[in-house]
Design brief:
It is a single chain. By secondary structure, the protein is an all-alpha fold. It has a domain at 27-95. It has five helices and no strands. It has helices at 5-18, 38-41, 45-55, 60-76, 82-95. The protein is elongated, with a radius of gyration of 23 Å. Residues 21-27 have low confidence and may be disordered.
Amino acid sequence: MPKPSSEVIEYVRRHLENNKINTTERTYGLSKLISYPQLFRLLAKDQQQDALVQLSALPLSTQQLLLNEWQARCLSQDIRNPAGYLFGMIRKAQLGTFRASRFCQ
């Protein structure tokens, strides 16, 4: 015998409440130890968050050097996708192949 609709609704409501997924969103804020270039602040918030997560695995001195280099390159060259360029530079730093150019030495 099927349950009356109000009982079904109540069952589903309780079932959903009991199976809630409780998650805490990780947020990474700007470090007070790093001077973030103006260009970084112009990135979309999700791009900033992703970059901060990836940068956090690097030493502070490398983070600062990389951000300075990134802004200098973006301002002096025709970089079509600054966020993509930043993530590429971060990846090189993680692999140990990032080298600062004349901009930041």
